[in-house]
Every structure is written in C-alpha cells, then in structure tokens.
Amino acid sequence: MQLLYYYIHLFVQCSNSNANKPIKLTRNEISNILQCTERNVIHILNRMEEKEWITRVRGKGRGNPTVITFTKSITDMLTYMEASSRDTDFNGLITYLERHDILRNHQHVLDTILKELFGMRKDITQQEGEECLHIPYFRSFHSLDPSQVERQTEIHMVQQLFDTLVTFNKDTDKVEPSIAYYWERDESGKVWTFYLRKGIPFHNGKMLDAEDVKFTFERLKDTPAKWIVAYLEKMNSIGSHAIQFHFAIPIVNWPFMLCSPKASIVPMGFAEQTVEEFSREPIGTGPYKVKSHNTNLLSLSVHQSYFKERAHIDEIFIHVMPSVEKFMNIKEIEEEPLFYIPFTWNTNTDRGYKNVERGHLSIKYLMWNMRKDKIRSNHLLREKLGVLLNKKRMIEALGYPRYEPVRVFHQNRPNNDKLYNMSLDIDYMDTLILMTYNLKPNEEDIKWIKSECNKQGIHLELRVVPYSNFYEEAKEADIVLSEYVAEDVEEVALLNLFHSEMSILHNLLDRENSRITQGIYKELVQEVSSNRRIQIMNQLENKLIENHIVMPLYSTYQKALYHENLMGISLSIIGLVPFKDLFFRKEYGSN
Q1: How far is 449 from 465, CA to CA, in rounded Å?
Q2: pLDDT by residue (tens digit) across 190-215?
Q3: Quick check: is 310 in a domain?
Q4: Residue 484: other Cβ atoms inside 10 A
Q5: Cβ within 8 Å of residue 545, ≥6 positions away
Q6: 191 partner at 20 to 30 Å CA-CA among 170, 294, 408, 478?
Q7: Structurally, how many domains does the chain consist of?
Q8: Structural domain span for residue 220
Q9: Are residues 167 and 113 in the same domain?
Q10: Do 171 and 249 share a structural domain?
Q11: Which of 262, 280, 298 marks a domain boundary?
Q12: Angle of helix 38-50 relative to helix 27-34, nearest 10 degrees?
C-alpha cells in the first residue's frame, strides 16, 4: 500500500497529475519529495517499473536526472487499489495525502478520489445490469451483533441485516406483524404464543423456524440485553412454526419489547459461526446481507429471497473514512454526483442536490459516578455543575449536530430553564475525571464543559477512550458524557437506558437507585396502560435529575445530503436512510 501512496505523491507533485508526460527528476529530488533515503528511491522506482506504473530512462552518472513517464492516472491507481487490497484503505490514502499537503495544494486530487469512490459506480465484481451505491461513513462499526448495539450507526446497520418478530408502526402506534404473523396471550398474562411465517430464509439459505427464535432469546440471557428476558422462564416450540414464551409474572408489554433491534432473530448456533465472527459478519434474514467487513469497508449485497419486498439496489458499499469528512464540499465536485452523504453540515443544494434532516434523534447526557463515595456524598458539587452549564449557550457555541436543550429523556422538548447566576458557592479542590468515547462531537462537548467549569473553580481532567473500552473504563471516571438513542418504541428505549448493561446510566448508579430501577421494571412490564408505563419512567428519571445524578444536555439532529436522482430518501427515527427503500432514476440506474 505504501508503494501506491508513493506513486500518487510523486505523480501529483511532479507531473501535475498529467499521465504519459516525461519528467526529468534526480534521485535527490525524489528523495526530498518522498522523505526517504536515496537508496530507498532506487528500490521504489524499481518496483514501480516492475508494476509498469512508470517507464524511465536513467541518467548517466551521479546527480544526472532520470526521465520518468508516469503511465497510470489517479483514477487508474484507485481502481488498482480497490481491486488488489482486501482492506481498501482509502482513508489511509487521504490521511497520507493530507499529511503531505497534497490535498490543500491539489484540490483536483481530492475531487478525483471522491468522484471515484462514492455514488453510483460499477464494482469490478458486479454483473451487467446490477446497481450499487458507495457511501462514506465517518466511524467504524463496533459490532453488528443485535444484542450489542447502542449507537445509531450499529442500530441502523442491524435493521438492514435482521428482522424482529414484530415491528412498531409510528404512524398508528401499533405493533404489526413481521416474522410472526399472529400472536396471543393467555388469561394469566404469563404465556405468549407467536405464529411464525413459513419460508423465511436466512442469508445462508437455511429456513427460519421456532428453534432459531428459541435460540435468539435463550442467548440474550448472557448478553447486555438480558433485561429483555428478565422474567422469561422457558420457551416451548409448537411444531416448527409456533413458539410459546412462559414468564414468571404477567408480561403485558412483551410485543413492544420484541420491536427492539436487540430482539432481532438470529440463526440457531449463529449458523456455526463463532461469536466474534457473528459480530463482524452476521447472518440474518434482512433485506441485505454482509458480503465482507473489515476496518475500512462494509459491503452489503441484496438478499434475493427476502420474505418482504426485495431491495432495489443490488450492493451497498460503506467506506469508513473519518478523515474525509472535513473535505466534503459538493461545489468542488464537477462531474459524477456523490448521491448520498449520510452525515453533513453542508447546506449547499446546487446542481441537483437536496438536504433532508430529522431532529430529536438522541440525547447527550452527563452521568455522575454514584458508585464513588466522594461523588455520592457531595450533593452540592453535583448541583453546582447542573447550575453552571448553560445548555443553550453550549448549542450556540458548538453547533451541528446539537439541536435543542432538553430537561428529560422521554420528551424532547425545549429547555425553558432560566439563566442562572452562580449562587452555589462551593470550593472543590480535587480534579474530577470527565470521560467520553472517541467521537468528534463528544470531544468538543467535554472541552466546552471543562472551560465552563474552570470559570467556577471546578477542575476537570478530560479522558477520551475508544468506544470498545468505554463501558469498562467509565467505572474509573467521576463524570461521564454518554448518549441515549431514540427507538420507534419510546418506552423500550427508556427501558434500555435504565437496564442495559451497556448503558452508562445503568452502570454508574449506586445500589439504592439500582434497586429502585429494578423494582420499577417489574411494575412496568405488568402495567396494561402504555401511558401509565411512560408516567412511571417519568417519575424515575425526574428523581435522578432532581437529585443531580444525571443531567440531560441536548437532543441531536441529523442532516443528509443526496442527489435528486437517488430516490426513496427518508430518515428513520435514528436519522439514517433504510437502504431497502433506495433506487435510482431510470436514466442513472439503467443501461
């Protein structure tokens, strides 16, 4: 890969990106451009010549120039890179070019890369007539195992790969059939029976049956999502296409809980995959299946035998390229459109581009570590932080993707708190650890919070950790910045916030409040009225907020940019486009 970087670097700097034009260069000049030794220059040029990327006529004598002709354009090299590299590390290429000031000085190089990478373009493995879409993403996927998903990106991807027994219709506020076409509860409220559709294939061709459903919920007991099956005692298969759930207590809201992405149906025994393999390249029943997945690229292919409507686009390529985000400027792209950029602050709508956005997608919040004595016993310190942070000013200072101040989790309403003058005079000399995971808005947030705290005599040490280590390392922090993500069923999202083992709120509560939340869970699942269930959770979160244990800050919004020739665009409740709905206008999508 480094040789390819060297080629593009030398090609751009010396030939001004003009292929097949002879250029005179000395070994010393090449050494300075590539920042390597002259001995290494000989090795590099030899390898380029072997690959037929260059031709050269060597100068006679030391210091005499060599005539080099670059035979491959940037487009040629990008095609070569994608065909030869299993990792397709375009992000590494952009990082390399940025580090050497090539992107700043040669805008056309970036334009070429973006045009070649994204939008509708033919993949080398595609058959005639197939359509594909290449999309930039700006962070990698932690896990594609449904039981592990907490962030918007992973939840969205799970929804493309899996199905649940039932789904929730936000327009009607009703649970609707999906894998299960009918369900009923007995008089005791402890036994639910679900009838499964026949002929639903997994991505590997195996047909779904009751044993897969049974395996799905048995294995949840050993995952962070075990709160879903807290009172589940046993399951009985009734033939191959019906299953009974037996609970220790009456469970009224079971169909609502089954709408959670974490309850997606997985194949029995993970279809002979290991847990690690399944988290990277899982097998589900959804409209798309994983073709390949590594750090830099997730490629999806259409599930031809999907039991609902077949998706229109044959392949989706998701390029994980954090470094390219700041370069996305549609005005500079003069030829092929990028079609869809899922995360953007760009408001440009020139040349057929449109913006779509959706608000109240998630809520960023601060959580005190109530398992530490010094935090639990210092109510005034916790209160002071709540008083001094002006949420509205924070949003104005930092901007997108911050949407509106919020007071609570369950209703994303504007924050009407009055602006405070500091009246809590408390000196706290110890330095507090404020932690979050490595996401650009999170890092901006904690820097702003530190600045505000410094003004009032609260000193913070900032720690940013990888997301994979976040929930474990957060136990060492004094304050943690985390995120609550919305779901179609609001009460299920709140249950996940209070009970998931991957929820910061759940992990940092003290024993007393943990016992309260567990008791409320038992009350909730037996409550018939959904409005009453929400009210019960309101009371719980109000208690936590009023005691300055947790502090909701703001809701987020998502803005996407897409070309008018990409149809079917609508943002889900988590702010991303369901891939199965996308299609191209005929003049772009047909031969």
Answers
A1: 17
A2: 999 999 999 999 999 999 999 999 99
A3: no
A4: 22
A5: 407, 408, 551, 552
A6: 170
A7: 3
A8: 163-280
A9: no
A10: yes
A11: 280
A12: 90
